[in-house]
Amino acid sequence: xxxxxMQHVALGVMELTVLAVKSxxxxxxxxxxxxxxxxxxxxxxxxxxxxxxMEEGEFYAIETFGSTGKGYVREDLECSxxxxxxxxxxxxxxxxxxxxxxxxxxxxxxxxxFCKRYxxxxxxxxxxxxxxxxxxxxxxxxxxxxx
Length: 147
Hints:
It contains three helices and nine strands; from the N terminus they run ββββββββαααβ. The chain has helices at residues 96-108, 116-121, 128-136, and strands at 7-11, 14-18, 22-23, 28-32, 42-44, 59-61, 66-67, 83-84, 140-141.
């Protein structure tokens, strides 16, 4: 893993600062299936990760994540995006508002990622408790929050 040393580059009147960029070592690329963004296999971006082989006919998202910080993701901030779990079966919901929100998610996103702004654009209001309920019971997941 190499990084660029901090240096200053003068371009005419403008001065730019180049910062050291590190690979985020605990984020990976991944296999993709039909309506399944994370289909099971990981593709590490730093040495020492999963050693499974890619097979013919599989599809992958080869993602590189860079950071000028520590190069590691901590899951301790508010989540910005959500996804319905691909393999979730029927889970009974007690909150009517959670049932309504799940219907909106199923109709508009299925198992693809969405954010709160997308729900706002669809006219959803007062959905935070319902979204939390869907996450708590395992229907929706909040993948990561990057720091």
